[in-house]
Each structure stands twice: as C-alpha cells, then as structure tokens.
Amino acid sequence: MFIGEYKHTTDAKGRISIPKVFRDDLGESFYIAKGLDQSIFVFAQKEWDEIQEKLRSLPLTSKKGRAFTRTFNAGASKCSLDASGRILIPQNLREYAGIDKDTYVIGVGTRVEIWAKDVWEQYNEDELSYDELADSMEELGI
Amino acid sequence: MFIGEYKHTTDAKGRISIPKVFRDDLGESFYIAKGLDQSIFVFAQKEWDEIQEKLRSLPLTSKKGRAFTRTFNAGASKCSLDASGRILIPQNLREYAGIDKDTYVIGVGTRVEIWAKDVWEQYNEDELSYDELADSMEELGI
DNA sequence: ATTTTCATGTTTATCGGTGAATACAAACAC
DNA sequence: GTGTTTGTATTCACCGATAAACATGAAAAT
Fold this sequence. Notes:
CATH topology of chain A: Chemotaxis protein chec
Structural class of chain A: alpha+beta
CATH class of chain A: Alpha Beta
Oligomer: homodimer
Shape of chain A: globular
CATH superfamily of chain A: Transcriptional regulator MraZ domain
CATH architecture of chain A: 3-Layer(aba) Sandwich
Order of helices and strands of chain A: EEHEEHHEEHEEHH
Largest sheet of chain A: 6 strands, antiparallel
C-alpha cells in the first residue's frame, strides 16, 4: 500500500530516487507507464499483470482497443532499482510529465505516481478543493 | 513481452536498428509484415505461427478471408538481425508505412511495431485523446 | 569486360544509460 | 548537545547502444 508525498530530485540523466518506504512493496522489478493528468504511473509486478490481463481481453479487431493497448504499452517500460535505490525515467515519459529536476513521488494506494513539481502544485491549486472532492465522494458511495 | 517506445533512424538503404531489449524476445529469425493503421508489424516465430494457424482456420470460401490472407502473407517476409542488430525493411513496407528516416520502434505486448515518426506522432494526436485514454482506463478499472 | 547499382559488412564517433564514490541532511540514540 | 545511522543528492567516470559514414562484394546492365 503506497501512501505519502515525497519531494525528490531527478538528476541530469533522468534518474530519481524512489522513497525508501515504497521500495519493498515495489519489489525486485516493476513497471513505469504514462499516466493520467500529466503524471507517470508506477506499478508493482502484480498490479501490472492484472492490467495486462485486462488488456489481453480487449478485442484486437477494435480500433479503440488496439489504440489503447498500443499507447499504453508503448509508453511503458520495466525497471528496477539501482544500487542507490533509483530508477531511470525514460525520456519520453520525462517529456510527457514535464520533469526535469524538482519532482514529487506520491503514493496512491495501489500505485506510485511521479509528478513534476510545478505540475503537481498547479494541479493541487486548480483541481477541486479537498472539501469539494469530499462531496463528490459521497456520490461515489464512499 | 515487448514494451516501450524507441526513436531510431532508418538508413539510406532502408535498414533500422532493432532496440537491444527486443532482440532476445524476437529470437534468431522472425517475421515482418504489413500492419494496421499504416504501421509495420514484427512478430516472433511463436506469435507468427499462431497467426498462421488462425488464418488456416478461415473458411476458404470466405472472400474476405482469402483476401486478408493473401495481402497479409504477400506483404510479409522472414528476417533476421545483421551483425549490428539491424534489419532491412522491405521497400514495399517502407512505402506503405511512409518511412524514410526518422522512425519509431514500439513494443505492443505481443508484437513490435515500426512507424514513421510523423505518422506515429500524428496518430497519437488524432487517435487517442486524453479523455479517451482516461475513459478506457476507467472501463478497465485501472 | 567494364560499369553501375544494390545489398550487405565494417568501422568509428557520439551520446545516453549505468555504476560507483562522495557529500550532504535528517532522524535517532545516547 | 554530540555522535551515529540511514536516506537522499550530486558528481564523476565508464561502458555499450546507436547513428553515420565508409568499404566490400555480388548481381545486373551496357
């Protein structure tokens, strides 16, 4: 279970140190993929397998299914921690997320997300206030 | 499992270097064929056999089945990596995909796809908007 | 037979990824 | 408070993958 918000830095080569508390849960090797809202998703192996299972069930004959599988897989890569607990964020994902140095790594329950500092802060300002979100949650039955 | 997006260049002779990470999974010899959405498909032997199996099961009486089998097989060829890890993309496929120099090689799970840079970038703009991606993910419960 | 063309091989240079070492900072124990 | 431990940041150096250029050789054309 991934929780918490951590401000880390991405180095000149595009590597970022994964918060210590996430490392065990991520395991030996895990996956990084293009996320939503200009973020990067990081999935543990188990979670990844479940997603792939769902993707396999999509009909290949459907244009939309092909498109999604394609985009999702193309934007993903397998990764593992180096000796210092870092991963390399692929360049295309760095560009997508607008990451160059100041970065946030946040735990979102089933996955980890990586955000450029500016994007994350902007998102928190722009998006619905926490109170408003709480109201919406009620609609979702939480 | 093929994943990731790699920007490579096709040389003047129509050769392109296959990403190192794909080479083992592709094996000694593999197949290149006309793909969908103006892309080129590359299949490992095993995957190729399965496709051929499916094609064989198509009723010979079906006009569309015959046509597809014909086009698919006619446009395909067996290939292998040269000493530098490159393959030669047959000219007809290069023309079909609009490839001349800047090229993307992407992993799509069960196969590799080769795209002309412009076509791939256009496809990503057109086909799968951000909202659609989000919706698809929601349907999948991600 | 000579030239031309095309496919294939080889070499070199560059750049990005990878690893290791060190420095810094925060948390904790005493 | 001081010293120790642990986690993160930074830097440097190396290695390997890719790109580009060049070389070789075979087949086709004249």
